[in-house]
Amino acid sequence: MDIKEALSGNIGRWIGNVSYDDEKVLAVSHPLYSGGEIVGGLRFITTLREVNKDLRNIFMIITVLGVIVTLIFALISILFSNSIVVPITKITEVAKKMAEGDYNNRCENAEFEEIEKLSTTLNNMADEIIKREKLKDEFISSVSHELRTPLTSIKGWAITLKEAGEDKELIRDGLDIIEKECDRLTSMVEELLDFSKLSSGKIEFKMKILDLNCFLKEIKKQIEPRACRENKIFSILMDNKSIFVYADENRLKQVFINLLDNAFNFTNAGDSINVKVLENSKEVLIIVEDTGLGISKEDLPHVFEKFYKGKEVDQKWYRAFGM
Question: Are residues 65 and 35 part of one domain?
């Protein structure tokens, strides 16, 4: 075929098997010209043994390289997948434990930013849940503590009214105080149930101009029946002139009732509980003092901590509540 192609004036090529060689041969024929005419052809024939050998070597090299690249890619894929799967598996285990109520487990740091963000978010969620649980416990303690204040006054006056007989003025004062304490109790329950305020540390104050003398006289009416029952001396020392302060009346009453309740709880019959009011040009100082057990020096630094309970003194317990 290549000779025919050369005799027609073209370069002919042919690859095929021959009887004198085991490998294929390549034949290339070129036309020969004389006087501008084709008078014959020149044919070059060579075996493809070395070419095929080189091709086989190249194929083997490419195959080996392909296998090596495939193995390396597989190894990298395994390592890469483990760096993702293992952290996610651990995060899943931690999440399951948190779902069961164990919030002390934490996710470890991961290499990838997205997984690291997921771990951090889960850890922050656990911290927030623990914080909420602690806040819930404090809330329950706060409810029991704060509700006791108006209930103490209501119970005290209920006992007093049982023994009031025909004293209509005392009965009227007692019922008036019970009504006000019930209103305050309702308001307090509404505030305590607003858990979002407590969690965010935002408590609303209903500030107004308050006549301190009238306010303390109201406190005295509430406390005097208890003082009589327990045979204790209770007094409020203040000037007759009006003293005006800007305050939340219910919160201020809560403070005074708590202080006086503690004073009565930890004094004996015959002891004195006194409230003194001192005024200067800039401020009003109110002192609540008693002749009871007192607070030890060791416990004094802790009196403003929530629901702190002091040590036992003379077989009695005293408590100092932070206001």
Answer: no
**247-299 confidence digits (pLDDT tens):** 988 888 888 888 888 888 888 899 999 999 988 878 889 999 999 888 888 88
**Three-state secondary structure call for residue 52:** helix
34 vs 135 pLDDT, higher one = 34
Contact criterion met (CB below 8 Å) for 322 and 295:
no
Could you report the per-residue pLDDT of 48-57, keeping only the tens digit for each?
Answer: 888 888 888 9
The DSSP code sequence of 87-125 is HHHHHHHHHHHHHTT-----PPP-SSHHHHHHHHHHHHH
Residue 229 counted as domain residue: yes
Both structure tokens of 265: 């709880």
Distance in angstroms (rounded) separating the CA atoms of residues 287 and 305: 20
Q: Are 237 and 217 in contact (CB under 8 A)?
A: no
Q: Give the integer Cα–Cα distance in Å for 274 and 223.
A: 12
Contacts of 242-245 spanning 24+ positions with Cβ under 8 A = 242/211, 242/212, 242/213, 242/214, 243/211, 243/212, 243/213, 243/277, 243/279, 243/284, 244/209, 244/210, 244/211, 244/212, 245/209, 245/210, 245/212, 245/284
9 and 77 share a domain? no
Sign of the torsion angle spanned by Cα atoms 257, 262, 263, 267: positive
